[in-house]
Amino acid sequence: MRVLEMPDGCSFVLVLEPGKSFTLLNTLKRFNAVLDCWSYPEIKCSIVWAVAIFKSVVWAEVTARTLRHLSFPMSDAGPDGLKKLSVCLEEDSTDRGALRSISFDFCFNWHVVSSGPSSCIMLEVYGSKVDLSWNTRYVAKTLTRGINRTPPCLQRVTQRRRLTGSHSQVKISVSFESAVQSWPKQPGDEKKMAPKRTKKTAPPPDPQGIFSGMTVFLIESGVQSLRLKIWKEKLVQMGAKIETQFSEKVTHVFVISSDALSNRVDEDQLARFKGHVLLYRWLEDSLAAGEKVSEDFYTLKVDPAGSDIPDPKRNSSGYDEQSQCKRIKLSPIEIKQTNEERKGDIETSFASSASDTEPRSPSSITSSPENLSSSQDKDIGVPTSLQHSPPDINKDITEIFGKLVNIYRALGDDRRSFSYYKAIAVVEKLPFKIESADQVKGLPGIGKSMQDHIQEIVTTGKLSKLEHFETDEKVRTISLFGEVWGIGPATALKLYEKGHRTLDDLKNEDSLTNSQVIGLKYFDDIKTRIPRHEAQEMESLLQKVAEDGCCVDTYFGLWTYPGRELRHRVDFKVYPRDIYAFGLVAWTGNDVLNRRLRLLAESKGYRLDDTGLFPATHGSGGKRGSRGTASLKMETEKEVFDFLGFPWLEPHERNL
DNA sequence: AGACCGCACAA
DNA sequence: TTGTGCG
DNA sequence: GTCT
């Protein structure tokens, strides 16, 4: 009897059903992430059922361990072999509040297994007749609520409930415990009842493993903890020895990119180092290949001359400075930058984890490691490293969709707008160039229309629908008006219907609200990006001002300097010191992260907002900060994250 | 067919 | 109440 | 727009 546990950080489950398997597998195959999957024969050959887990929408997170533990040859066991289900909850904050549910059709008994970023609940299935037809709705909220309830309670859940309370949704992931004998051999098979996340005893190290003789030191920066964990396990399992210090014994150093290398390692030490410095990718590729692959393409040169590299020590003290800079949240620039940084990251992780054979063309296979290291070498020393843009491969599509996002938003059709927004995210992550709509069929968020649109774009290079919009005067004016601060879709439409067509027209309109007038007056100013140095000036200026004089709670307005015309849009939020951390978290964003944190808080019986973290007031939901219940005391963002059990993210990492 | 955030604030 | 903007 |  074995409990299959959901690894940390999993948030998505895909069940491949008989008949559908191949389609889905083909879909999966297109994601580099899936590669690991192919290194497991039991999956490769005859999967009837398999469960793959993805980290968020970053498909690249599927890992060997995940698949190994979760791919489950149901054909062998048959549903009857299923004795227990453990269900993992993790909010999916990529979507806004849509309810997702996973379906079960049986009675079960459940209790909390553990809590944490993804809380785990054990379900005991009654009776051997477990129908996995996934018919009945099982609702997220039910589980969420249950997290705080300790004693097992029997539930028959047939209804579907709305996920309320927070506008995040919960995704439920399922893993199995089965009584199957034919499970891929693994010792430590004694029965493990589960209340704790059962610690998988990894298979014992194999002295003959492909990595035997290696003593490795892992540079962890820039690597997702889940992946790291898996790599470590793999290394050990395959005979390598892991050093926690960069000592003489080390024969191999692994690093995600040359960037991470230069940031984390003492150069002198590195210069003296005689061993090999390899990209983690080598590890992945070797695992996939089942043997050590040539190190040629993965070796990083140690360049002692890399002196314009930021001081490594900076890392420890860096945070303070950063948070200073953004104590006041100012605007597009900063946001934009983090976005770009992030995209860069994604690209990196794609490149490094792609170890596929099929989806990539042979040429890209051989050339990519080179590109990887060389492009990164080039980046060293470029302070912001905003060099590369995201995987641009399908830019034609995402750009067009992006325009539609804006247009629909301007028109007030948020739903549709958001649909495109989601589709972009999906398309953007594809590691190949779309050549036909078939290639996107079945991807989440891509339905009939998206497929059609994509088809049109890849064949004609444009989208008639968009062209239509762009030439339509109504759409154009409404979009334009909507760019004015304070004017939304509704107002824009009214103005259009009143006959206005240009911003100048609006100047004579007397029905505008105060902020709209201002927004109009300073239209160009507001659109002008604020130079970062100016943001910093603002901050220091404000520091002084703020010290004497009392402050407004919130200010959304325009900023200028005495004697200067140009105005910038600036928001001020003022928080008492004791709840400052909460304000900071909330206003730093991003929205997705906020939803996640809030949901997490809720699942633990708290309510989080920008004013604090409150024990949930049972009953009427509890109004913001009211009810005499004071916020928990937290001084720093870190404390908030820690308290909630959410892995710490630097501000620039919060673009989820 | 009907779902698709929730809140505070200003007009 | 509605619209708007915020994450 | 997509999803159930």
Automatic annotation (TrEMBL):
Main subcellular location: nucleus
Subcellular localization(s) per the UniProt record: Nucleus
EC number: 2.7.7.7
Compositionally biased region (Basic and acidic residues): 337-346
CDD domains tied to this protein: NT_POLXc
Reaction(s) catalysed by this chain's protein: DNA(n) + a 2'-deoxyribonucleoside 5'-triphosphate = DNA(n+1) + diphosphate
Domain BRCT: 206-300
Top-level taxon of origin: Eukaryota
PANTHER family reported for this sequence: DNA POLYMERASE LAMBDA (PTHR11276:SF41), DNA POLYMERASE TYPE-X FAMILY MEMBER (PTHR11276)
Family of this protein: Belongs to the DNA polymerase type-X family.
Designated name of the protein: DNA polymerase
Organism in which the protein naturally occurs: Hibiscus sabdariffa (roselle)
Taxonomy of the source species: Eukaryota, Viridiplantae, Streptophyta, Embryophyta, Tracheophyta
